[in-house]
Design brief:
Elements: H1 12-66, E1 68-69, H2 77-84, E2 92-99, E3 105-111, E4 117-122, E5 130-137, E6 144-154, E7 170-179, E8 189-197
Antiparallel strand pairs: 1-2, 2-3, 3-4, 4-5, 6-7, 7-8
Length: about 200
Amino acid sequence: MRIKNNQAGLTLVEILVAVSIFSLLAVVVSGIYVAFSNSQARATRAQRLLNDAQFALVGMAREIRNNQLYYGFGFTAQNCNDEINPTPEINIESCIFLQKSDGTIIAFAKETSNNKLDYLVRSSVAPYTWSVTGFVFNDGTEGVVIDSLNFWFEPSTDPSIEGNANRQPFVFIQFKVSTSDTNIYKRVSYNLQTSVSSRVYKR
């Protein structure tokens, strides 16, 4: 009596099917891992950008709240450049002027040609010059692009002058920042807005 051998090996078709299944599983698992890694990288970058942007916005709002809005120069881009330039020689896109309790005039200014948001102080004696004493954002701020910074003022004229609108001045700030990453999975942008009133009001 012949005994049937049931230990025959896999056929070529079965081997190919098994390899195909394992290859497909490997591709799926790899895809999930890559997607998860990209998602984590984007979330980390987004949180860092948001922290940096909020830090800058809170810093500007604090200075506006604690000091007096200075209307003496005007607030257009041309006003900013006429007053601050040529000391230092920077091209300014937008700015805000504030006056401290000791009479010192300061400014926040976004440069046009450089990715910088400057903190400037005017000298107390003539001839008046401006100096950049610090950067809210500068070229060294990792991966941050300042897309826009705009200030709107209400009232538009100095309320401390008789005949002008007698209202507590406030400033509306629009601040848009984004990441400079070339990797599309790490590209993030935020458009932050806030309004703040100056506590210093003289009439």
